[in-house]
Amino acid sequence: MAQWKESLEPHPHVAGIDDDLLWIDQVAFAATLQRLCAASCAPRRESDVIQIVRDEMEPIAEEFATDPLGGAVARLAGDGPRLLLAAHADEIAFIVSHIEKGGFLRVLTLGGFDPKTLTAQRVLVHGREDLLGVMGAKPVHLMTDDFGEGAGR
Fold first, then answer.
1. Which runs of consecutive H residues, i.e. helices, occur in 9-150?
2. Which of the pair, 56 or 101, is modelled with greater confidence?
3. pTM
4. Do 119 and 136 contact (CB within 8 A), yes or no?
5. How far apart are CA 8 and CA 64, in angstroms?
6. CB–CB of 17/23 below 8 Å?
7. Closest Cα to residue 93, out of 38, 35, 43, 36?
8. What SS3 class is residue 8?
9. How far apart are CA 107 and CA 114, in angstroms?
């Protein structure tokens, strides 16, 4: 058996290797994917996702390393096929800039995206305890333009 195949045998997601086909345990793979999707990962705070990747790769990797910018690299032993998996680990995130008297939060963005896509999106606010929230916007008929006039009139 090729060395790259031997290094994958002990991994819980590998259901079997037949010739050059790798059979994946779909239940174990789905559980890991669920962990990755549920992890909070603001820009420059990718440690939770990197830890999940480390947990999955260290049992089979000859080498696992991270860099100061949050990147992770795992190298498997052997001379088999080479494969690169590349992805962003971070997600859209905000930092609370002000808490209104009624409990509404004002936020600043971390990273770039189109803010128009956020209205009515569910969010998780991390604090002393995690809180579920919904992104909202002031209705256009209550907004004012640069001249103090109603923007929606």
1. 26-38, 47-57
2. 101
3. 0.63
4. yes
5. 15
6. yes
7. 43
8. helix
9. 15
Contact 124, 134 (CB under 8 A): no
Closest CA to 74 of 87, 85, 63: 63
Place of tokens 């936020």: 107
pLDDT for 75-131, tens place per residue? Answer: 877 777 777 777 777 788 888 999 999 889 998 888 777 877 888 888 888 889 989
In single-letter form, the type of residue at position 80 comes to G
Q: Which helix (H) or strand (E) holds 75?
A: strand 72-75
From start to end of 76-152, where are the E strands? Answer: 93-99, 105-110, 122-125, 131-134
CB 134 within 8 A of CB 122: yes
Beta bridge partners of 96: 107
Rg (CA), the chain: 22
Q: Are 65 and 54 spatial neighbours (Cβ–Cβ below 8 Å)? A: no
Q: How many beta carbons lie within 10 A of that of residue 127, not counting itself?
A: 7
Torsion of CA 45, 27, 56, 73, to 10 degrees: -70
Nearest-5° Cα angle at 63, 60 to 65: 120
Give pLDDT tens digits for 140-149: 888 777 655 6
Q: Strand pairing of 72-75 and 63-66?
A: antiparallel
